[in-house]
Amino acid sequence: MIIKCIVVEDEPLAMDIMVDFISQVPFLKLEKTCTDALAAMKILNEKKIDLIFLDIHLPKLKGLEFLSTLKNPPMVIITTAYQEFALKSYDYNVLDYLLKPIEFCRFMVAVQKSANQTNKEILPTVEIINDGLFFTVNKKKARIAFQSIIYIESQRENVKIVTESNVIQTRIAISELEKQLPDSFLRIHRSYIVAKPKIDLVDAQEIEIRGKRLPIGRSYKNDVHSALGIK
C-alpha cells in the first residue's frame, strides 16, 4: 500500500518539517509540495492524490475555502497553528487536525488513520434491484426503494439514508453510492444527496426537503440550480 500525498504549506520551516516526517513513513509517497491552494488544485487535476496535508492560512485562497471547491476531495489532514478552526474543519470530513508545532508521534497517529481508511474494505457492494438499492446493513441484507428515499448524508466512510419511514446507516462512500442512483437524485453538497421530487423549497444557499434544511455546497451551486431550472 502506497499513499500518494501532497503538502500545501506557505511557511518554509513548516514545509521542511512535513517533508522530513513524510520521508520517514514507508507507505507515504510525497508527490509534490505547494505554497498555495491554486497550485494544489492544478496538481489534483493532473494526478491522482490520496492525501493532502493542508495548512489553513494560505495566500490567495484559504485552506477551508480550497476544500469547499473540491467535489470529490482526497483524504485531508489539517496542519495549522490555529485551534479555533478545528470544529469547522470537520464539516469537510477531514481525517485529523494537527496543531503546530507538530510532534512526530502525533503526526504518525494522523497518518495511520489514512492507512486504516485506505485499507478498509468498502461494504456493501450496492446492487440495483428493480427500483431500489439492495445491500448489507448490520450483516443483514436490506432493500430500499428509490421512491422512499428523502436524502442521503455522508458520515465519513458511512452514509445515513433517510427514508419516509426509517433511517438506515451503512458503510459505503457517498461518492460510490452516488454512482448507483438514478437521475431523480441530485448531489447538492459533498455531504448530501437529495431526491429531487421531494424538494419543497430552494434558494441560493439551501434546500428544504421534508422540513429539513440542507446546505448547497459552493462548488455544486451551478449544477444544482441548472438541474432544478433556477436562473
UniProtKB/TrEMBL annotation:
Sequence intervals crossing the membrane: none
Record domain HTH LytTR-type: where: 135-230
Position of the signal peptide: none
The keyword Transmembrane belongs to this UniProt entry's keyword annotation: no
Domain Response regulatory: 4-115
Modified residues (4-aspartylphosphate): 55
Keyword line: Phosphoprotein
Top-level taxon of the source organism: Bacteria
Any GO MF annotation of the entry: DNA binding
UniProt keyword annotation of Nuclease present: no
UniProt-recorded name of the protein: Response regulator of the LytR/AlgR family
Species of origin: Aequorivita sublithincola (strain DSM 14238 / LMG 21431 / ACAM 643 / 9-3)
